[in-house]
Design goal:
alpha+beta, 2 helices
Length: 157
């Protein structure tokens, strides 16, 4: 009893039962595990997409080399603009410039390669592209030579 004749309240600290703690923390742990799994899946998909795009860009370089070989193999060198355009299209390219100054042929071709782009919502196909400047000229023996240079700026349109 207190000094005033009333019953004093006692304040006790109570510890929740172990079952209550599990009931409180189980949903939190489940959400954290789900978030971690989603983050790992997203990271793996992103790495795979980057690898697919890189492979596609490497294919554009192979297309450019193949295009240059085919242009040099034309019987009447240097070939005309329509012949060069046809060769570029056979190699998934688009001729963007054609010039025949002096004793050489200068072309710029934009090459495309498709790759898979995967997200959590499905798969789509994207296009990777690069532009190459390819200059052809005849050497002293009259044989065609080529020099291929990748251009940094390339219009996707």
């Amino acid at each position: 009893m207190s000094d005033h004749g009333t019953v004093a309240r006692q304040h006790r600290a109570t510890v929740p039962a172990p079952g209550c703690l599990v009931a409180l923390f189980a949903p939190i742990v489940a959400v954290l595990i789900a978030a971690l799994v989603l983050m790992v899946m997203h990271h793996r998909q992103q790495r795979a997409n980057e690898r697919n795009e890189s492979d596609a860009l490497n294919r554009t370089a192979a297309l450019a080399r193949s295009y240059a070989r085919d242009v040099m193999a034309v019987s009447q060198f240097p070939p005309g603009q329509e012949a060069v355009r046809g060769i570029a299209e056979r190699h998934d390219g688009r001729l963007t410039s054609y010039a025949r100054p002096e004793d050489r042929l200068a072309t710029t071709v934009r090459f495309f390669a498709e790759y898979k782009d995967t997200t959590m919502f499905g798969t789509s196909y994207s296009r990777a592209y690069r532009c190459y400047s390819i200059v052809f000229r005849e050497d002293a023996a009259g044989d065609p030579q080529e020099k291929t240079t990748r251009l940094e700026k390339c219009d996707a349109g």
